[in-house]
């Protein structure tokens, strides 16, 4: 465990908590893509099946359980408790265009052709693109609430910190996982445009709105 | 081989 990995995990946790609190406090999930949140719940479910087969550390197990629980809670708030505030009309990204190719790819390119390994690979690939429905929704409405941009910032920061973590581990532990690294690079790139807007607008106190 | 799975990561 190095400092980049730890702050990456904490940044990921911060993103998840920010989103939950935003929905809970405002009693509204306006501007949030339920489809992205469903995809993240699917990502955590398929990745953390090893909770049943192997124990790594108390930290590892508790963080996995927290991520899974929070992602299901978020989906519950969006599709059940605050369903009336869910902006389904703007959440129109076709998720089958992500899930089907990612499913196919995880069968073709994986470390080992076994059920758990294929599901783990599926979750890695799916996570890299799961934010697309949310970004699509923002591009469609042309704006995002500031709290939503904080959520996206911490979510992108998490993956960027993981990239530094992998460089660190490559040099100091000889550790390298091509699947995770390529997916992580793709995922981080998807946030670059958003990072630019976040720094140039949101951090200067302006609302994130896109030119018409 | 040098490929190691990142199973200890989240």
From TrEMBL, chain A:
Record membrane topology: Multi-pass membrane protein
Spans traversing the lipid bilayer: 65-82, 119-139, 151-172, 178-199
Record PROSITE patterns: ER_LUMEN_RECEPTOR_1, ER_LUMEN_RECEPTOR_2
Subcellular location: Cytoplasmic vesicle, COPI-coated vesicle membrane; Endoplasmic reticulum membrane; Golgi apparatus membrane
GO biological process assignments: protein retention in ER lumen; protein transport; vesicle-mediated transport
GO molecular function: ER retention sequence binding
Cited InterPro entries: ER_ret_rcpt (IPR000133)
GO cellular component entries: COPI-coated vesicle membrane; endoplasmic reticulum membrane; Golgi membrane
Domain of life according to the entry: Eukaryota
Keywords: Cytoplasmic vesicle, Endoplasmic reticulum, ER-Golgi transport, Membrane, Protein transport, Receptor, Transmembrane, Transmembrane helix, Transport
Main location: membrane
Similarity field: Belongs to the ERD2 family.
PANTHER family: ER LUMEN PROTEIN RETAINING RECEPTOR
Name listed for the protein in its UniProt record: ER lumen protein-retaining receptor
Origin species: Chelydra serpentina
Record lineage: Eukaryota, Metazoa, Chordata, Craniata, Vertebrata
């Amino acid at each position: 465990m190095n400092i980049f990995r730890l702050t990456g995990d904490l940044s990921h946790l911060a993103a998840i908590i920010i989103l939950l609190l935003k929905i809970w406090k405002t009693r509204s999930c306006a501007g949030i893509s339920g489809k992205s949140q469903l995809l993240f719940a699917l990502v955590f479910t398929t990745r953390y099946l090893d909770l049943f087969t192997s124990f790594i550390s108390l930290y590892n197990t508790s963080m996995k359980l927290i991520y899974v629980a929070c992602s299901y809670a978020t989906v519950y708030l969006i599709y059940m408790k605050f369903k009336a505030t869910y902006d389904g009309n703007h959440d129109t990204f076709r998720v089958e265009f992500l899930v089907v190719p990612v499913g196919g790819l995880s069968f073709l390119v994986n470390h080992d052709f076994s059920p758990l390994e294929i599901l783990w690979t599926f979750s890695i690939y799916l996570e890299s693109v799961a934010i697309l429905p949310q970004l699509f929704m923002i591009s469609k409405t042309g704006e995002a609430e500031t709290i939503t941009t904080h959520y996206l910032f911490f979510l992108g920061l998490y993956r960027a910190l993981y990239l530094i973590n992998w460089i660190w581990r490559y040099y100091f532990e000889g550790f390298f996982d091509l699947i995770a690294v390529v997916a992580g690079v793709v995922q981080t790139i998807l946030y670059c445009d958003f990072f630019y807007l976040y720094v140039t607008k949101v951090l200067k106190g302006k609302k994130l709105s896109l030119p018409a | 081989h040098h490929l190691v799975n990142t199973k200890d990561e989240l």
